[in-house]
């Protein structure tokens, strides 16, 4: 199927729902048939990414790889992983994948460009493991951007707590915590906080927080990149060209 | 994978997102790993079900059957179709399917039982084609229930219009129309309107309508049935029993 997108999800399930919703929202459509075809694997049994990284817990990689194989069997032509922390295994996933995998940090960079924003200080709101493994800092190295996170106590009591609450099905409670964390970053002169954990936009949207407008939602950025990929792919096939297959960022890793 | 659920979706995409969200909401979970495993096929190119039924347009059946095959290849053990109108082809889907398919009307009946409700008049808010093909009336025949729909002009200007607006990505505009249609049914003494098109709860929830509490949301009912199926299946496997595989409603069709 032309432009069939695979979503390797379930990390967590509500964040995957949110990402799927954004795929629909980011598509210009007047009717069902205008939308992009998607297969979503929501396999929440994948071991906790943060525990694997920070506490040497069970690795999620084997189940992530199984998911990739199943998506490929379903003939997807491109894969996205709406979980920032899981991008720690991006290189290994790419090596095993027969189709390109879009990188969430590239999508955030594209979103900055789209906004014409060249912030000196980018806020990083994410899991402790995304921060510690420098998923954003390393992929955006050399761009003159200083990354700025909340203080450790704020991260524990606001950011991590909000993430956990979303995973427990309490997005509104999470929203109030996440909003405080965003406000603290803005007060300290951070121009653009990046919601670099896919649970955080779920939290802020649950309370209709106006602060989300000041942020870059990595999940929405990835959805936008994925819709653009699928639309371009359909156009390319319509024009008889196959070369978009090689345009995934994976090979440049 | 134990209890792996397949969702044959995309009819329309936002309704599939809403159904997926309800799968998550209807699961008791404290962490990602407590959730059920799901594969969602959102293939919006499936021809319009209503056009096929009412105007002898292209049949959606071939693409629905393709979706079934792909879901089976992904090793799902049970399938749901979060589109009421598509249940017109339920018999043919069941004949072709190697795994049980839960019927959305059975889920609504279960929801009535769960509430202890024995309404004499059930409101039916749905597409013209769901109404005309008697998907609900025939499956619930002999239960002493009188079905009651909006007047034809209301169906056109409120119900069908709301469904189309959701498909166009305008759920809030849709919500105000759907709310009027619900209120008209309640005013006429209909005890329980059934939101028997999966776009309608999307509309009412988009405006936070309190009237949704008076309705049965067929999409949420199906989600609840699917979560129960998956949880029972996991328990049965844990107990070494395989007999739940045969418990789908499909074979009793």
How many helices of chain A? The count is: 11
The oligomeric status of these chains comes to homodimer
Q: Helix- and strand-based class of chain A? A: alpha/beta
Percent helix range of chain A = 40-55%
What integer is the average pLDDT of chain A?
A: 92
**Chains forming the largest contact:** A-B, 41 and 41 residues
| Element-by-element helix/strand order of chain A | EHEHHEHHEHHEHHEHEH
Radius of gyration of chain A: 17 Å
Main sheet of chain A, how many strands, which sense, barrel? 4 strands, parallel
Low-confidence stretches of chain A: 244-253
* Beta strands of chain A, count: 7
The 3D shape of chain A can be described as globular
Query: In percent, how much strand structure appears in the residues of chain A?
Result: 5-15%
* Order of neighbouring strands in the sheet with most strands of chain A: 5-4-6-7
- The span between the termini of chain A is 27 Å
Outline of the structure:
Chain A has 253 residues and is α/β, with parallel strands linked by helices. Chain A has helices spanning 13-25, 49-54, 61-73, 90-96, 104-114, 128-132, 135-139, 152-167, 171-187, 200-206, 218-238, and strands at residues 5-9, 38-42, 78-80, 121-125, 146-148, 192-195, 216-217. In chain A, the strands form two sheets. In chain A, strands 5-4-6-7 form a four-stranded parallel β-sheet, with helices on both faces.
